[in-house]
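Retry 2 of 3 after timeout on previous attempt. Resubmitting structure tokens to design endpoint.
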């Protein structure tokens, strides 16, 4: 169920780790195949109703790839719009897992659920519950980031 808008987005600011993804097909998760781990930082944007996201992706080959983008908040909702990607819709959901959130991303030809946590190594039951929930929604493909390497440092710009 979507997050209660009363405190949104304050509880979601700060550092997050990408844990797992689920989608109807493997093709919708292929972008994560070369990824070992991803660390994100969510902060308020420079304008009202904006969130600034920074991420650093640790590829399986050891390279660090920085990314940044802006989410535009929707008044009275947990729907997020990605700047420069008008076809992309992101919805934020609560997770029964301590320190966890789920995002549903959908766009032209794809949809996927993504699990994030405040800890880079959440309890195994968190991942199992996420996989069980998404499989009930007929999301048959599942991907868990290996997290075998240290997370890259987040850039400050």
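Retry 2 succeeded. Sequence:
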């Amino acid at each position: 169920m979507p997050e209660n808008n009363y405190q949104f987005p304050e509880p979601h600011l700060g550092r997050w780790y990408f844990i797992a993804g689920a989608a109807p097909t493997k093709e919708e998760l292929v972008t994560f195949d070369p990824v070992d781990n991803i660390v994100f930082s969510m902060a308020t944007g420079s304008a009202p109703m904006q969130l600034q996201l920074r991420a650093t992706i640790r590829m399986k080959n050891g390279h660090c790839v920085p990314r940044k983008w802006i989410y535009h908040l929707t008044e009275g909702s947990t729907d997020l719009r990605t700047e420069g990607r008008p076809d992309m819709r992101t919805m934020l959901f609560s997770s029964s897992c301590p320190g966890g959130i789920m995002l549903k991303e959908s766009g032209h030809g794809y949809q996927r659920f993504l699990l994030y946590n405040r800890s880079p190594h959440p309890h195994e039951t968190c991942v199992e519950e996420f996989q069980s929930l998404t499989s009930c929604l007929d999301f048959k493909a599942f991907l868990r980031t290996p997290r075998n390497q240290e997370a890259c440092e987040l850039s400050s710009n």
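Attempt log closed. The chain has a mean pLDDT of 89.
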